Amino acid sequence: MGALGWIYKAWVPARLTDARERFRRAYQLKNVNQSTYEHWANMEWKEREWARSAEAAGVRLKLLPASKALLYMAGRARHRLARESSPAGLHHDKGSNGGEACPQSRLERAIEAKEADDQFTEGEICRALVLVCEMQADVVGMQKYFSRWRRSSSGDPDLASEWSRLSKKFKLGTLDEPVLKVTEVGARPIHLMKRLETGLLPLMCAARRNRRPCRQAPQRPHP
After folding, report:
1. Quick check: helix, strand or coil at residue 97?
2. Do 60 and 37 form a contact (C-beta atoms < 8 A)?
3. Taking phi first (over 0 means left), then psi (-120 to 50 degrees means alpha), and beta for anything else, what does residue 181 get?
4. Which of 11, 23, 90, 131 has the greatest number of beta carbons closer than 10 A?
5. Is residue 91 one of the residues assigned to a domain?
6. Residue % of the chain over a pLDDT of 70
7. pLDDT level of residue 115 (50, 70, 90 thresholds)
8. pLDDT score of 64 more than 60
9. Does one domain contain both 91 and 2?
10. Count of domains in the chain?
11. From CA 85, how far away is CA 80, in angstroms rounded?
12. CA-to-CA distance for 165 and 169, rounded, in angstroms?
């Protein structure tokens, strides 16, 4: 049944209604072939059917919940759905309070999944998490996933462009800073490196200025 869905999806022109019915029937028959649900979720994603894409990935996760690819597909689709369905985005998403269905929960499970997957890179998952954190104005989360993104995919052109955009919006600094982790002081993120420069280093300089010079031992005259 899943194979028929793939055939209808690949038809020229695509027979989307027929493909959708076959994919859904495959799920009803407890088909656990991961590629069936990947084809279904990708078909809906390309049609910009965010809710249906999330559903296609999500129904398979009910059967086998550790699929890295489908966790990512479900998370990104729920993120797009939340972003376009409400001006306030994730704050009005039913799954935004940390439940299994929320975009961030799905994506965090995807990035930690042990299953080998060559469809989606860690950088792609980090980018999706950065965008979720942007909607929540979660500066600490953005810094966390930017840092991980940089470690896994430092040459990714999307990394530099997203950092440039969001660093201006949230005053994140520069991507080359040695410390990306932040702490919250009120509503403003303070870089740990800056805290060291403004706190510890002046104390060290003052101590150096007040230090007495070492006394040299008197030299004995030569015989």
Report:
1. coil
2. yes
3. beta
4. 23
5. yes
6. 67
7. confident
8. yes
9. yes
10. 2
11. 8
12. 7
Q: Which two tokens mark 8?
A: 């209808």
Contacts of 137 (CB under 8 A, 6+ apart): 170
Which pair of structure tokens corresponds to residue 161?
């462009």
Q: For 138-150, what is each residue's pLDDT tens digit?
A: 999 999 999 999 9
- The residue assigned the tokens 């028959």 is 29
Q: At which residue do the structure tokens 């909607």 appear?
A: 135
Residue type, 183: T
State whether the Cα torsion 72-74-80-82 is positive or negative: negative
Residue-level pLDDT at 138: 93
Residues 73, 166, single domain; the answer is no
Instruction: Give yes or no: residues 70 and 36 share one domain.
Output: yes
Give the whole-number percent of the chain exceeding pLDDT 90: 42
Residue range 155-214, pLDDT digits in tens: 899 999 999 999 999 988 776 553 344 444 333 444 433 433 444 344 444 545 555 554
**Local structure of 185: helix, strand or coil:** strand
Domain region containing 95: 1-120
